[in-house]
Predict the structure.
Amino acid sequence: MIIIQAGSSFKPLFTCGALVFTAGVDALVRSGQINPFHYFGRHLCGDWGDLCEEDRKANTDALISDARLLSSYLIEPELKLWIITEADRSVTTLLLPEEY
């Protein structure tokens, strides 16, 4: 669940389905090393993070064609978080690249 403060301009661009964390992300959340909802909110609003221009364009096209959406966020020099929303919008997974 995402809590939005009154007056917020949060406007998701797409539905995300079920929210799933991989074991690696779950461990980071439980240890307090990341707040996944910050990045999840960015993903829902079309802030794709640290992607190349080609991947950004693929996401823009995917919003129209209902293809898979990918975001990538560099949290620390050695820690990257990926968020993938499936093409059918049934599930959004937060994962570490090495768990792909």
